[in-house]
Amino acid sequence: MDFNVYDVALAKQFENASIKSMPLVAWDIYSQIFFQTNMLLLDVHSLHQIASKNQWKSMWDFKESLQEETVIVVTDAKLKIVFASKNIQKMNGYEVDEVIGKSPKMFQGAATDLQVSNEIRQAVLNKEPFEKNVINYCKDGSLYKCHIKGFPIFNHKGEVTNFIAFEKIAA
């Protein structure tokens, strides 16, 4: 559809109108997109700061991952969360401040498959990447199936400084 036709028709309609203003809906849509873009850019900046501070050998395009509605969680070497992208709230209801300093185990519960948890734990201990689907819990107690791609992150000396997980709702 050619939106120029719409624009011309709308301009003609308002040309003779006594009220000449933009509908508030347009600003609402703009502000939502602006807010989402700002969140994305702040998350990307924070990830680059963590990478620089810990001397990561990074191979990921964080901006692209976050645009695909992927949640990114970074832990330190002791598996305490040091970063979570702001879109985590959309996935499971937790605000970023509620997860910082905690273990990713906070998302697990009775319905979480122990075998999958053990496989993830073993990969972490062996400092190996993993890709698993796991049943996690939202803040409100509801369940969601989460597809996780996890990677150890090594600094330039070959030491593990962090772990990073790219998470999405699994179908």
Description of the molecule:
It is a single chain. Helices cover 41% and strands 23% of the residues. The protein has 171 residues and is of the alpha+beta class. It has a 5-stranded antiparallel sheet, with helices on both faces. It is globular.
| Helical segment count | 6
Count the E strands. 5
Q: What percentage of the residues does DSSP assign to strands (E)?
A: 15-25%
Helix content: 40-55%
Give the uncertain stretches in residue-range form.
none
Q: What is the end-to-end distance?
A: 33 Å
Main structural class: alpha+beta
Q: How do the helices and strands follow one another from N- to C-terminus?
A: HHHEEHHHEEE
Rg, Å, rounded = 21 Å
Main beta sheet: strand number and arrangement?
Answer: 5 strands, antiparallel
- Average of per-residue pLDDT values: 85
Shape: globular
Across the major sheet, the strand order is 2-1-5-4-3
